[in-house]
Structure formats: C-alpha cells, structure tokens
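fold-stage: in
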Amino acid sequence: LTPAALAMTLLGTTTEQAFEQDYNPEIPFSSQRRYKTITLKNGLQVILVSDKRAALCQSALSVLAGGQFSENESVPGLAHLLEHMVLSSDSQSTFRRRRDFEEWLSDREGASNAFTANEKVCFHFAAPKQYFAEGLDRFASLFREIEVEAVCRDQEIMRREIRRVDLELDFDSVFSQEEYLTKAFVNLEHPYSRFAKGSLATLETIPKERGIDVGESLFD
C-alpha cells in the first residue's frame, strides 16, 4: 500500500474521497524527510511523511478541542479518562474481541500510547512495515463513534481505567510540584487553574455523591 492508501485506511475513506488543499504545517527547513498534506472531504487534515531512515512505521491522531480545557468542569480529569477508555480493551468491537490492540502490537515489536494536553489529545502507535496496514485498521476501529459510545457505557472498563488514572498521580515529583504551584497563581476563571489529571475522588466518589453519570459525561 502507498502512504496515501494507508492514510485513507486509517481515516475510513478512499483515495477518491480525499483531495489536496493548501494548508501548510510548520516543517523544519533542515528536515530530510518528504512531506505531503491532504485534507479529506470530512475536514480531517492529514500529513504524510516519508523517512527512509525510520526503523518503524508510525501514525498519530490528534483531536483538537479534546483536551483538558474542554472537559466538563464538574468532573475533573474527564478528558484524561476518555484517553484511557479509548485505548482500553474489552469493548465489543471486532478487533477488541480478537485481541487487545496494544497486546497485538507488542507481539509484533510495536507499541502505542497517548497523552492528554490542555487543548488536544493525541493517540499514536508504531509498528514494523509489514504489520502497519493492519495496525492502521485496528487503530482506526478504536475511534468509531459506536465503539467509543460502547466503551464509555461499560461500567467495568470505566472502574478499571479510573483506577489506572489515579495510579498515575505523582505529587512528589518536581514537575508536578511546579505545575500545581503555577496553577495556584492563575486566574481561577481560567481552565488551567483546574485540577485536570483526574483521581478516584474526582472521577468516581464525588460524581456518585452528586448523581453525575460519568459514562454519559464521557460520551457527551
């Protein structure tokens, strides 16, 4: 498959449905890689990168306005939890039933991960060339609306992922201490001032006390 065909597989469309458009991402002037930009008819922007020196094929999907600043204020950490839910196993999708995506990747010397930033969330994976096409298909299946809705309404998965989010909290590191010290000086009306990592308290205990359906909030 060509890089364009692989991108179309990832984004659930065909080459004929895509068209090139002049949008210019910032590309380092010294880069030896080759770049091509495509905007699909559904508005998704794609950057194709060719790097002959790369050991693995890689793909990333960034969702703007899906970060911490956009989450429901009544459930701090909701965006971070959604990142975990999307990559979690045990949903009813075909690929999840066959094998967990990350387990499938690790068996083929690949890996996946994600991060939730202030204004976006980014999912990414890497795999050897011979497995990349199937990896893109599996990766793309994680983001179908029907699959996201199903996993958001799965209480067992949500309970497990909330605890994984809680385990990531580290108030002893210098980075965390600097972050929360900075938050203490920010205007309280600005979203950066909020606690956005999420914890067992903010994602489970307090919502239960207030009658908030976290699964519904996730999907919304």
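fold-stage: in (second)
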Amino acid sequence: MKLKFNSGLEYQLEAIKSTTDLFEGMPDQGSGVQIDFGKADDGMFNELGIGNNLILSNEQILKNLQKIQTTNNVLKSRVLIEEGSPYKFPNYSIEMETGTGKTYVYLRTIFELNKLYGLKKFIIVVPSVAIREGVISSIKMMREHFKELYNNVPFDDFVYQSKDLSRSEERRVGKECRSRW
C-alpha cells in the first residue's frame, strides 16, 4: 500500500509560510555564498562542521516575527531574546493540534527553507525513541513525495549517534555538503 500525501492543505501551507517568512530578506545561500575557512570562530564553521549562515540581523528577524504574529493574530514579541532566557539565540515555537500533520509540516518546511534560502543542514530533535522511530518512518514514506514536489532535490538523513561521529564528519566539506541535509 502506498500513501498519497496532499500537498495543498491550506492550514499546513500557512504553517510552513509562517516559518519561512521569518527569514524573509535573507539571500539564497546556494547562490554563490562562499565560506572562508580561515574564520573558524565565526559561528558558521567550527570544529563541529559547517552550519547554515544566517545573514539577517536580529532586528530584521524580530520585524519578520512581528509581521507573522500580526498575520496570525498572536501577541507581538517585544524582543527577540527575552532577558533571563536560558537561550542566547532566537528560538521559535510552531504549534499545531494533534493529528494535523506536524511531521509533514516540519519536514516540508525543511525543503522550503532549502528552496527559498539554500539552507542545507537541519537537525530534528525528538523527546523519545518512539517519536524518533515515527519520524524515521515518515521520512521513508514521504521521500518520493518530496522528491516529486521539489524537483528531485538530493537529500540524506541519518540518526545522530554520539558514538559514531563519522556520518556527521563526512558532510563537513566539499561536495558532500552541496545539497545534502
């Protein structure tokens, strides 16, 4: 039995857009952005590898966030990072009801962020082994669907194991980083 996914559900598309619009104004990372490997402490490249480069100021992200909050009738944030927050970086919460396709939405959001901004690396953190297994299963089931929706964009996924860093390390430089996430 092969499941057919509906890519046109309006509430899911709105959730995806609410996330991608946070980065409005950011240039496409895949369009000639180069990495200077001489700056190992700039936050984008360090001993852990190469990260996505966020080329937006906190002020612009806050402006984008407030616009999204207004559109969605959510109380506007006064600041991007609350004083006393345990996080020293912006973090966001996209909340959806049970049974609405949250896994589909966050996986598709990854593809949209790649398409719109060229972002290539994503980490999905889950609270339990059961949910991890569900996400792995969803990725397998949706792989062909996303390939059809996103012009066969290559992607790779794996479960991070702290005992085996070689899978993370192989994506550090060169062609392995090109279009894999």
